[in-house]
């Protein structure tokens, strides 16, 4: 049942982030207590270092460097006081990897050490955020802008598939692993099929989570390679899990077709025919051509 907007919007909390100043003095940041919160930031808000403030304390595990978390967020340009991104409005949580290679410094400094279940306000100076964003201009940001984020820390994403191990079909290339147990590459065996006639999916680890639905966004670890044992053209294990939309046209057909119905927590081998991968025009699009093979850990879906 939806709450009355009059009741939820009427109650707000406000506080000052220490060390922050802007324009003719620091203006209070207000955060409503609504399920879909509203955040008000006075224009010309700036900060010289990343600051965070817990709006609502959660009781989950603490976030560590290297974790990937499921979040809702609102993003505001401190210079203009205007919102430039909001995951609450489409009711689809996002995933954020807090690792050294891909995450903005402001995200790591603001969220590492916070507990799952918390609502956290984070002010990110330009040097830890906007100045490092290649997409800053498309978001209406200048390179010296402060960004303000409200984060709801919903869950920590598992780091790998967990469940009952199953034997892979003998006609598939063999998946090999690094010393620390991460998928490394597929190698051809004497029983490996030389060609791919149709797309197929096989389960290596059977997870016990919910079944993936069409159109969902899945958070995955994956390794992509030219079939049967060619070049590894992409992988996520060195950078952190990635969100992939399974909406029609958002991913290659073999992903949108064959991952639907699989259970969260599983590790699957996905073999894609040329037509269900990047098609006959792959080289023209600077994509890997021919049939492809993937090892995919299905970590979360929303």
Q: Describe the global form.
A: elongated
What is the rounded distance between the termini? 21 Å
Number of strands: 20
Q: What structural category arises from helix and sheet content? A: mainly beta
Task: Describe it.
The chain is mostly beta strands. Helices cover 6% and strands 35% of the residues. It contains 3 helices and 20 strands. Strands 12, 15, 16, 17, 18, 19 and 20 form a 7-stranded antiparallel beta sheet that branches. Strands 6, 7, 8, 9, 10 and 11 form a 6-stranded antiparallel beta sheet that branches. β3 and β4 form a beta hairpin. The longest helix has 7 residues, at 105-111. The protein is elongated and about 65 Å long. It starts with a helix and ends with a strand. The relative contact order is 0.14.
Task: Give a quick set of tags describing it.
about 300 residues; mainly beta; 7-stranded antiparallel beta sheet; 6-stranded antiparallel beta sheet; 3 helices; 20 strands
Produce a short descriptive summary.
By secondary structure, the protein is mainly β. The model is unreliable at 1-26 (pLDDT under 50). Helices cover 6% and strands 35% of the residues.
Helix-strand blueprint:
Elements: H1 5-10, E1 12-15, E2 20-21, E3 29-32, E4 39-40, E5 46-47, E6 51-56, E7 68-77, E8 82-86, E9 94-97, H2 105-111, E10 119-124, E11 147-156, E12 164-165, E13 174-177, E14 183-187, E15 200-206, E16 217-226, E17 232-235, E18 242-245, H3 253-258, E19 267-272, E20 292-301
Antiparallel strand pairs: 1-3, 2-5, 3-4, 6-10, 7-8, 7-9, 7-11, 10-11, 12-15, 13-14, 15-19, 16-17, 16-18, 16-20, 19-20
């Amino acid at each position: 049942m939806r709450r009355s907007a009059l009741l939820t919007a009427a109650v707000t909390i406000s506080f000052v982030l220490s060390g922050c100043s802007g324009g003719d003095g620091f203006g209070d940041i207000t955060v409503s207590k609504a399920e879909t919160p509203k955040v008000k930031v006075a224009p010309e808000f700036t900060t010289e270092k990343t600051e965070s403030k817990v709006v609502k304390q959660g009781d989950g595990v603490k976030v560590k460097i290297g974790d990937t978390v499921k979040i809702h967020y609102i993003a505001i340009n401190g210079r203009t006081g205007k919102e430039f991104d909001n995951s609450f409005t489409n009711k689809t949580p996002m995933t954020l990897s807090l690792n050294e290679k891909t995450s903005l410094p402001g995200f790591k400094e603001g969220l590492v050490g916070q507990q799952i279940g918390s609502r956290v306000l984070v002010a990110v100076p330009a040097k830890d955020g906007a100045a490092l964003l290649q997409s800053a201009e498309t978001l209406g940001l200048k390179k010296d802008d402060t960004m303000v984020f409200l984060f709801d820390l919903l869950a920590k994403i598992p780091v790998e598939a967990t469940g009952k191990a199953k034997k892979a079909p003998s006609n598939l290339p063999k998946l090999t692993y690094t010393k620390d147990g991460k998928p490394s590459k597929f190698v051809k065996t004497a029983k490996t099929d030389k060609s791919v006639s149709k797309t197929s999916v096989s389960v290596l680890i059977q997870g016990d989570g919910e079944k993936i639905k069409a159109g969902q966004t899945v958070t995955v670890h994956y390794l992509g390679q030219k079939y049967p044992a060619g070049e590894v053209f992409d992988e996520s294990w060195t950078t952190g899990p990635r969100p992939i939309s399974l909406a029609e046209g958002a991913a290659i057909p073999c992903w949108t077709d064959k991952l639907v119905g699989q259970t969260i927590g599983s590790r699957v081998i996905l073999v894609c025919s040329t037509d269900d991968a990047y098609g006959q025009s792959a080289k023209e699009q600077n994509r890997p051509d021919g049939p492809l093979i993937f090892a995919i850990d299905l970590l979360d879906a929303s």
